[in-house]
Write a structure and sequence with these properties.
By secondary structure, this protein is mainly alpha-helical. It folds into 2 domains: 1-49, Arc Repressor Mutant, subunit A; 57-203, Orthogonal Bundle (Tetracycline Repressor, domain 2). The protein is built from 10 helices and no strands.
Length: 208
């Protein structure tokens, strides 16, 4: 095999491991599977990673980094904090854009999505803590946005913590059923899905 620079080789190992973890499961996939797939020696893998757990942790950290780049902030909350008062149509459009970006990110990295949602919370205790921390942060951002919307009279009075959990649960179920199970076959399908999700969720929180 042609020589690759170290960062290229490291990423090649990560990409291969991600695919194998998604297909076989974290517990079943082994370092030897990566070596066989890439036609490299075990020593090559250990030049970059201490063990399988280190590979898995690195994949999860990449997921967080890429997700934070794709979804840096909650748009409606940011608008409120800037003193803006978007109308219902603007709020719906901003949330749809945000949800679409999230679905697109999950669709483009379905292998890692399967690992996150199907095994990430049970594979390793340390990974579980990182995942809970990440999703709790996203939930608390949603809670803050809902409470701000209530204070401004845009949203109805509510249990913001409960509603934020329900919103995230709905979106997670859609990801599991439609994206990770392969029912979505094109990126073109994601925008209409985001529109449906946001329309459904807003009906329950908009002030009448």
């Amino acid at each position: 095999m042609a020589y690759k620079k170290s960062e290229q080789r490291k990423q090649q190992i990560l990409d291969c491991a991600k695919h194998l973890f998604a297909q076989k499961g974290y517990q079943a996939a082994q370092i030897s599977d990566i070596c066989e797939e890439l036609k490299i020696a075990r020593g090559t893998v250990y030049q970059y990673f201490e063990n399988k757990e280190n590979i898995f942790t690195t994949l999860i950290e990449q997921y967080f980094e890429n997700m934070n780049k794709a979804l840096p902030e909650t748009p409606v909350q940011s608008a409120f904090e800037r003193g803006e008062m978007p109308d219902l149509t603007q709020i719906q459009n901003m949330l749809t854009d945000y949800t679409h970006a999230f679905l697109l990110h999950m669709y483009r990295d379905r292998d890692l999505g399967r690992i996150i949602f199907l095994e990430g919370f049970t594979a390793l205790p340390g990974i579980k803590d990182k995942l809970f921390e990440f999703f709790e942060d996203r939930k608390q951002r949603t809670v803050a946005g809902l409470r701000l919307g209530v204070a401004l009279g845009v949203l109805r009075p509510m249990n913001a913590d409960l509603i934020a959990s329900a919103m995230m649960g709905t979106t997670t179920r859609v990801i599991l059923d439609f994206i990770l199970e392969g029912r979505v076959t094109s990126e073109d399908e994601l925008r209409p899905m985001a529109e449906e999700l946001v329309a459904f969720q807003l009906r329950g929180v908009i002030a009448r």
